[in-house]
Amino acid sequence: MKKKSDKKMFSGNSHNYSQVGYNDDSDDDQENDFVQRQIRQQQLQMKQQDEGLDFLSESASRLGTLSLGIHEELNSQNMMLDDMENELDKATTNLEIVTLKTKELIQKSGGKRNFMIILSMAFVVVILLFLIIYT
Q1: Which residues, in sequence order, are CB contacts of 115 under 8 Å at separation 6+?
Q2: Buried b (16+ CB within 10 A) or exposed e, 2-29
């Protein structure tokens, strides 16, 4: 109900604001100035965005170069690790062969009992040499 009365109250008011104190030429000049300012502002924003995109492009290019360098370094290190793994396998095989031959030698020389006797006699000789040198 209130809306209908508001419409009637304001419907009779008709004002022509465009003619009050304004010259049509000055309106056109102000509109042109506003449009020109907006165009310059948009051009400035586009230039700033272009500069930002150029910086981003350079950064992406540097990042791509760095990632390629890292990729090459990782490939090189993977090849070195593979070589080291192969050499470690060979060394492990050689150590197993030497261990087996040592066990066979100990068994041929009389077993662990004789080996322990020889080891303890060598230890006694080292102690005696130490005592002779420092007394």
Answers
A1: 106, 109
A2: eeeeeeeeeeeeeeeeeeeeeeeeeeee
Q: What is the pLDDT of residues 49-103, one digit of tens each?
A: 999 999 999 999 999 999 999 999 999 999 999 999 999 999 999 999 999 998 8
The encoded tokens of residue 47 equal 């230039």
Contact between residue 106 and residue 112 where contact means Cβ atoms under 8 Å apart: yes
Q: How far is Cα 84 from Cα 68, in angstroms, rounded to an integer?
A: 24
Q: What is the pTM of this model?
A: 0.43
Spatial neighbors of 27 by CB under 8 A, at least 6 apart, are 18
CB 109 within 8 A of CB 115: yes
| C-alpha to C-alpha distance for 3 and 28, rounded to whole angstroms | 38
The one-letter code for the residue type at 88 is: L
